Amino acid sequence: MNLLRRLWTALPRPLDPMRSIKIKLGLLAVCNACVGGLMMVWGYGLGFRGRITLPVALLISVLVTQILAHGMTSPLREMTAAARAMARGDYRRRVRATSRDEVGELGRAFNRMAADLAEVEQHRREFVANVSHELRTPITALRAVLENVADGITPATSEVIEGALAQTERLGRLVTQLLDLSRVEAGAVSLDLACFEIGPFLEAAVADAKAAHPDPVFTVRADAGLTVRADRDRLHQVVANLLDNAARHSPPGGAVTVTARPQADALLLQVRDEGPGIPAEERGRVFERFSRGSASQVGSPGGGTGLGLAIARWAVDLHGGQIAVADSPTGCFIRVVLPQPPGGSS
């Protein structure tokens, strides 16, 4: 039975080159009429009566119809089977879409949809796995500290409490970033555009970064009176995440420089550090969710969640801007371009 099914599936599809299902149906009708007529003529020529030639002609017409219609309807049957498989969670099924008509176009569109769904499902599984790992890491560390304190193994010194507090803060940052990420992906984030001076804005962001990372030396370079039209909160997310990323990868006493300057109806923001930098082959992935460069390992104390740069990219995209890792002889150099209305930056 399986062999017959495979042979039937592998039958040629002679009508595939036709560009329209209507033409195929017309050719099918013509073929049936021709086959029936030829069988009748051939039967009468050999002396067979109509009661014999007519059933034979009908039988052969049905057989020809089955063979020709097989290539027309098999993509629909394959799509039905693939849809049922996807309902069970199997996104690997594809349709053999070799025809050039509307059914073939539907089959190719179905294959693209199946590939997109498979990619979304893969991202969902990776997202759940990464979130589970990121949540488990600080929770496990915090639980170990509290258990040691409760059992009297570790005294409740200020250093121990500070370590537990650091894990709690890390967990809070992760939850906040996940909420920001979900709002952005759901399209629930709108922009509240306003004009403000960029220099004091960057100074305030750097002050917050200094409180969390006292070791690096932060420097702000912005022309006095330079203004930007943007959403202050969303832009603060961009700058804060870039500063956090730069500070975490900078050596003790390393310089972190943030620069703002106008550029042809746009504002150019640049953040540079003296860390190990990002290899060229990894620059296209660092703005993806839970992506880390080779210098940042999962679960490391100085490592981030892999969400900061993704949130920065989406915030920049909301403004219609661009964010990218630029070439730099040393450290990491990230450039943000925010479009501005004519005369908006001065």
Automatic annotation (TrEMBL):
Catalyzed reactions per annotation: ATP + protein L-histidine = ADP + protein N-phospho-L-histidine
Listed name of the protein: histidine kinase
Coiled coil (UniProt feature): none
Record-linked Pfam families: HAMP, HATPase_c, HisKA
Record localization: Cell membrane
Location of the Histidine kinase domain: 130-342
Catalytic activity, EC: 2.7.13.3
Enzyme class: transferase
SUPFAM superfamilies membership: ATPase domain of HSP90 chaperone/DNA topoisomerase II/histidine kinase (SSF55874), HAMP domain-like (SSF158472), Homodimeric domain of signal transducing histidine kinase (SSF47384)
Superkingdom to which the source organism belongs: Bacteria
Principal cellular location given in the protein's record: membrane
PROSITE patterns assigned to the protein according to its UniProt record, in alphabetical order: HAMP, HIS_KIN
Keywords for the protein's UniProt record, in alphabetical order: Kinase, Membrane, Phosphoprotein, Transferase, Transmembrane, Transmembrane helix, Two-component regulatory system
GO cellular component, one term: plasma membrane
InterPro entries: HAMP_dom, HATPase_C_sf, HATPase_dom, His_kinase_dom, HisK_dim/P_dom, HisK_dim/P_sf, Sig_transdc_His_kin-like_C, TCS_sensor_his_kinase
Residue ranges constituting the HAMP domain according to the UniProt record: 70-122
Transmembrane segments: 21-46, 52-69
GO molecular function terms listed in the Swiss-Prot or TrEMBL record: phosphorelay sensor kinase activity
